Amino acid sequence: MLTGDIPFDSQFFSEVASYWGSGLMFLIAIGFIYLAIQKNFEPLLLIPIGVGMMLANIPFSGMAEEGGLLILLKGFGLDTGLFPLLMFLGLGALTDFTALIQRPSMALLGAAAQVGIFGTLLGAIALGFTLENAGAIGIIGGADGPTAIFVSIRLADESLLGPIAISAYSYMAMVPLIQPPIMRFLTTKTERSVVMTFDPKPVPKLVRLLFPLVILMLAALVAPKSIPLIGMFMFGNLLRESGVVERLARTAQNELINITTILLGLTVGGTMVADKFLDPDTLKIFGLGLVAFTVATASGVLFGKVMYLVSGKKINPLLGAAGVSAVPMSARVVHKVALEANPNNYLIMHAMGPNVAGVLGSAIAAGVIISMIG
Questions:
Q1: Alpha carbons 167 and 145: distance in angstroms, whole number
Q2: Is 26 a member of any domain?
Q3: What is the DSSP string of 223-273?
Q4: If you placed Cys at 143, which of 67, 241, 260, 326 could pair as Cys (CB 3.0 to 4.6 Å)?
């Protein structure tokens, strides 16, 4: 018989069939790359993450196994927390605190948006996650990928690091889709049309130099566990503002943050192997991530409405959405929605104040959670 001449290895076919999950992960990775290239959703993040996901899910490649490239990068940069800290150094060198210094009240909007962190933490506990895992999941509400990774390394089970990081970065990329409907629903056209006339004096160099040092000392008093993040962020900003280490500032703003972005993206994507990602807990984390971004945006906008009323209707409540620390994406979204209501309404510079305050707020919230739970 012909069939008798062809050996049938049932174990081989069973093993091949078990790789259907890798195929699904490939499709997800292609989706990330499509969003990055076609829709321009955070391409600097989604392309490395998508490629890392592909490499990790190629059967028999060994890329995501002991001794493989992705595992080596994970041990070097994720397990040690090095990559998130280097990202904060680069972000600090890129950040201009002028808008926040000129109008310190915008820090309140950055703080209000952090409600999403603690709301998500409670939601994660309600869904059955341990307190440590819930604390790491809650940081997704801060809309800050490096911070989410930093907390996950210290609190969460290793199997949850990838889903938490991917959820944080995915929703950061989708800020232009998530935030506008919430902003329009919670505000009237009259509120969105408010033009803010604010022409402050230039900030003296001494104030710009003292600002990162003061913030560092305040963070040390309020949340000492946030110092690794805040410290690197302020170090980068001091390089920028000092004016005497231009080469170091340029390196932090360009080469350092670009290299770290590539390695961090590849490594995060490399943690997304099928047998760990295709799990009910992953779906819960993605659901909680959406809730986190929704609550963070809504709480910021609602507090913005309070400031709108208290200021005599001089503050545009849309600025509250910029308190979500997806810098500078959420500030750009605020600007775009304001222009829809009033073509002469330019909010981008005003929105950068709560935007950078949101970065500080999420890092401090991370320190508080690590201190309470870790």
A1: 9
A2: no
A3: -GGGHHHHHHHHHHHHHHHHSS-HHHHHHIIIIIHHHHHHHHHHHHHHT--
A4: 326
Amino acid in position 261: T
For residue 169, what pLDDT is reported? 84
Radius of gyration of the chain (CA): 22
Residue 226 lies in a domain: yes
Count of domains for the chain: 1
Q: Which residues, including other chains, have CB under 8 Å from residue 339's CB and lie 6 or more apart? A: 345, 346
Kindly state the average pLDDT of the residues 109-117: 90
286, burial (CB in 10 Å: exposed 0-12, middle 13-18, buried 19+): middle
32, 280 contact by CB (below 8 A): no
Handedness of CA 261, 124, 330, 175 (dihedral sign): positive
Res 276 pLDDT > 80? no
Exposed/middle/buried for residue 8 (C-beta within 10 Å: 0-12, 13-18, 19+): exposed
CB 106 within 8 A of CB 100: yes
Q: State which residues form the domain around 282.
A: 81-373
Residue 338 neighbours by CB under 8 Å, 6+ apart: 192, 193, 316, 318, 345, 346, 347
- Distance between CA atoms of 319 and 59, rounded to whole angstroms? 47
In this prediction, residues 230-241 reach a mean pLDDT of 96
